[in-house]
Description:
By secondary structure, this protein is mainly beta. The chain has two domains: 6-179, no CATH class; 204-300, Elongation Factor Tu (Ef-tu), domain 3 (Beta Barrel). The protein contains three helices and 19 strands. It is elongated, with a radius of gyration of 29 Å. Mean pLDDT is 87; it is low at 305-314.
Amino acid sequence: MKTPIWEASAGATLALLATRSFVFADLYTITPLFGGAALRYTTADIDMSDGVHTYSHGGPLFDQAQSAGSRPVAHWKVGLDVDTWNVVIQPRTVDPITGAAYPDRIGALPWAAAARAGFLDGAVVTVDRAILPAWPSWPFTPPAVPTGVLRVFAGRVAEMDVGRTQITMALNSHLELLGMQMPRNLYQAPCTHILFDAGCTLAAAAFGVGGSIAAATAGAVIYAGVSPPAGSSGTFALGRVTMTSGQSAGLSRSVRAWGAGWFQLLAPFPFAPQPGDTLTAWPGCDKSMATCTGFGNVANFGGCPFIPAPELAV
């Protein structure tokens, strides 16, 4: 038997299982990847507690997903294959007692809307099984405390299918991480930083060059009088242009090529800039050492980092 992650007293779980007379419920803990409080639910009809956390029965309905009719809903085996767990989650659309709409929420959003927005992408999910000798009878003071809790599954959200009334979630165990390429950073010529990001350290505000549209545009080509970027790569190619007035004010486009008095953009602005409209252009960076030298930023050049794999570190 697996070692319980929690039990009321040492050996109590094994003794209860040996009687072959017990009840159980699953406990789900969902920890969002991008921060926020962990979500804890139980498949029981009453709240459950492991002595530390309380698992709510009043949230969405959790049920294991059936795959291809009668196929198993979970998969475990000895070895390094990635274990999987499929579950169907059905949030309530209305509270049957108060009549409130969408009572099951993640933060301020209804459960399904939050899942559709990606709030649960990559979330860490654990599935524990609470073992009890019998369901408590009324009156009793909730939450119910099990005899023991066994860890059944731990993994991450791999796929989600969000429908109108339910969410089908596929979970992969943490063994999936063993498929990552290591070491993470390899020898390579280009810089790994993006111009003006935290690793580059350069401030975009120091390199913007203002100008204005000099003539009517022709598709993705705009004609503007802009001085060459000083103290940088010397070109706006691979940089960006942001309109600061006109119908496209606030919109930006990447620069494919640049010459004296013109920019060729990767895509045209939705509203053609008109003569007199103002813009700001930022230089581009091809991530080479020579370009980084032009920016005077060689000290932060991110090329050729090498971190040995853990098994090679001595």
